[in-house]
Amino acid sequence: MRVGERGKCPHCLTIVQFLRTTLTAGGHPGRVDKHPLVGYVIESFRISTAKDTVALFLMECPNCYRPVVSIVDKAGPRLVYPVRSGRPPPPSQVPKEIAQDYDEACLVLPFSPKASAALSRRCLQAILRDAGKTKKKDLADQIEEILPTLPSALQKSLDAVRNIGNFATHPMKSKSTGEIVEVETGEAEWNLEVIEALFDLYYVQPSVLNQKRKALDEKLKQAGKPPLK
C-alpha cells in the first residue's frame, strides 16, 4: 500500500487511490519545527543500514481523509496504522462473542496466521453450535453434520476448511479449536472467508427476510387483510 496505488482504505473500507499527506509536529499542520522535513508533503521515509532497509510510507485516504501508514522491510509490506485487517466488520446481527472472535482473528492475521486460524476455528465452531444447532463435539464432526443443510457452494467451502487445514494431520484443530498449531498456506484467510459466508447465511439473510415480512404484514394490515402465515 503506497501513495498513488489503489486499494481498500482500512478505515472506511472504500477502494481509493491513496494521496500524499503532510508531516506535522506539535499539532500545528504546516509548521516547520526542528526537523527540516516537517511541514512538507511527503510519501515515505527510508532507513538503510549495512544489513537492512526499512521504508515507511505515509498516505491519506481521499474518501475519509484519515491517515494510513505502512511499512516495507525484508519480511514484506504490512499495515502499521490503523491496526486493522482491512476485512469487513462483522454484521450487527452476529452475536457479540462470535463477532469478537472474528474481529480478533482478522486483527492478528498479518502478524500470526497461526493465532488467527486458532481464533477463526473457535469462531466457526461457535457459529455451527449457535446457528447450525450441531450437537457434535469436535469441529470436524460438526462440519460433517452441518454440510447437508447448506447450499452446495457453501458446502464445498466449509468442507475445504478441513481439507486446507489438514485436520487428519493436525487433530487438535478439531478437538481443541483454540490450540495454536502450524497452519497451511492460505488456511487462516480461507477460514475467515467461510465465516463471512456463514454470517450472511445464518444471521444476515434471516434478519433481512424478517424485516421484509414485517413490512409486508403491515401493508396487509392496512389493506384489511390477514398477515402472512
Low-confidence sequence ranges: none
Note the gap between the termini. Answer: 52 Å
How many domains comprise the coordinates? 2
Q: Mind telling me the C-alpha Rg?
A: 23 Å
Shape: flat
Helical proportion, percent range: 40-55%
Main attributes of the structure:
229 residues, alpha+beta, 2 domains, 4-stranded antiparallel sheet, two-stranded antiparallel ribbon, 6 helices
Layout of SSEs?
Layout: E1 6-8, E2 15-17, E3 21-22, E4 41-42, E5 44-48, E6 53-60, E7 67-73, E8 76-81, H1 96-108, H2 113-130, H3 139-146, H4 152-165, H5 172-175, H6 187-222
Antiparallel strand pairs: 1-2, 3-4, 5-6, 6-7, 7-8
Summarize the structure.
By secondary structure, this protein is an alpha+beta fold. 41% of the residues lie in helices and 16% in strands. The N and C termini lie far apart (52 Å).
Tell me what you see in this structure.
- There is one protein chain.
- With 229 residues, this protein is α+β, with helices and mostly antiparallel strands.
- It folds into two domains: 6-81, no CATH class; 96-204, no CATH class.
- 41% of the residues lie in helices and 16% in strands.
- The chain has six helices and eight strands; from the N terminus they run ββββββββαααααα.
- The protein has a four-stranded antiparallel β-sheet, with no helix packed on it.
- α2 (113-130) packs across α3 (139-146) and α2 runs parallel beside α6.
- The longest helix is centred in the last third of the chain and has 36 residues, at 187-222.
- The chain is flat and about 75 Å long.
- The mean pLDDT is 86.
